[in-house]
Amino acid sequence: MKLHLLLSICAALTLCTNIHGETTIDNNLIQRMEEVGPKGTVSTLVYLVDHVDVKSLSDSISQANMRFVDRHQLVVETLQATALSTQGSILASLKSQQGVTKITPFWISNVIRVDARPDVIHQLANRSDVLHIYLNYSIELVTPVHMGPAEQSDNRGGVEPGITAIRATEAWDMGYTGEGVLVATLDTGVDGNHAALASRWAGLRPEYAGHPEWAFLDPYTNNHNFPFDGGSHGSHTMGSVCGGSPGLGIGVAPDAHWITSAGIDRGSISETVADSIETFEWFIDPDGNPATAWDMPRVCSNSWGLTSGHGYPNCDETFWTYLDALEAAGCVVLF
Fold first, then answer.
1. DSSP secondary-structure letter at 25?
2. Residue 205: in which H helix or E strand, if any?
3. How many other CB atoms sit within 10 Å of the CB of residue 305?
4. What is the model's pLDDT at position 176?
5. Cβ(274)–Cβ(45) under 8 Å?
């Protein structure tokens, strides 16, 4: 009953601000368009005026004390319905337009990746259904901070000092080891054969039979059969999250199962914010069924950020709405 009630409320949570002023074009995008010239191509993120008020939706969910599975379904279906009902006109226009090389619509946030000539971007800025147009910023791993060797700080053999420093061992003593919890990372991928991680890749579980793509995403080659690490960073960070093997306390949640996306720092591949949006849209519903929630991670850990090559976008809520949406569905997002 609560789910049906909230579904009825959702229409009110889609902001339809049709009183249109001038569309905001990101200053760094303006600079980039000047650099490539009139015949060049720029990669952009076009945010539409109509969007889900995720904060209000989250507040309504909290007040209704919804079950996790109902919360997930409500958020996903509301986001999908908003994108479906508002993107049709702009997508049709883009598909018929010269100077457009790539169009990728998303629903986790009402945004479309558009790679096109500067004149097309300016035409988009004149549309009444467009709110902001950002540069599709490049992303990269956060460079590790070099530190000297640390001494073992726990009297249990094999426990990493960082684990002790955050008092994870005390949580273990209370029974909180990650058992029954699904975690995720967006990084270079994870070595599915790594001794500290292999047995707990979620793709090995019976419920994933025939569907490894529910447990591993490779946004660039569509090779989802078995997780691999396109560098080494991803296996390291997943180890910090949930690594564990006999006698070793490597990760904070050594009994958790994991999924991952290999979407960061893949050698010659140029990763962008749009690639991270694709991953988060996968995280929120890996099996593509809003009515199931077991496949969505409860925690998503990230060790990446924007490059400084073209500066940074203004620190506003619009740019990061896809992160807010994942949290509204019930996943804690950590950076």
1. E
2. none
3. 15
4. 94
5. yes
At 314, is the pLDDT very low, low, confident or very high (cuts 50, 70, 90)?
low
Instruction: Output the six-digit token pair for 274.
Output: 């749009």
Angle at the Cα of 276 (from 274 to 277), degrees rounded to 5? 65
- DSSP β-ladder status, 182-187 and 257-262: parallel
- Select from 315, 294, 332, 319 the least CA-distant residue to 214: 294
Long-range interactions of 65-68: CB distance < 8 A, separation 24+: 65/2, 66/2, 66/3, 66/6, 68/293, 68/330
Yes or no: say if 118 and 36 are a contact pair by the CB < 8 Å rule.
Answer: yes
pLDDT tens-place string over residues 132-175: 999 999 887 766 545 444 444 444 556 888 888 999 999 999 99
Q: Percentage of residues in the chain with pLDDT exceeding 90? A: 70
For residues 18 and 193, what is the distance between their CA atoms, to the nearest angstrom?
52
164, 153 in Cβ contact below 8 A?
yes
Q: Give the number of other CB atoms < 10 A from CB of residue 148.
A: 4
Residue with tokens 């460079």: 143
Chain centroid, CA 88 distance in Å: 24
For residue 69, count CB atoms less than 10 angstroms from its CB and return exposed for 0-12, middle for 13-18, buried for 19 or more. middle
pLDDT for residue 48: 97
All structural domains of the chain, each given as residue ranges with its CATH number in brackets, are 2-136 (no CATH), 141-334 (3.40.50.200)
**184-214: pLDDT as tens digits:** 999 999 999 999 999 999 999 999 999 999 9
Number of other residues whose CB lies within 10 A of the CB of residue 281:
21
- Residues 226, 192 contacting (CB under 8 angstroms): yes
Question: Quick check: helix, strand or coil at residue 79?
Answer: helix
Does residue 99 surpass a pLDDT of 70? yes
Q: What distance in Å separates the CA atoms of residue 290 and residue 297, rounded to the nearest whole number?
A: 14
| Angstrom distance (rounded) from CA 91 to CA 126 | 15
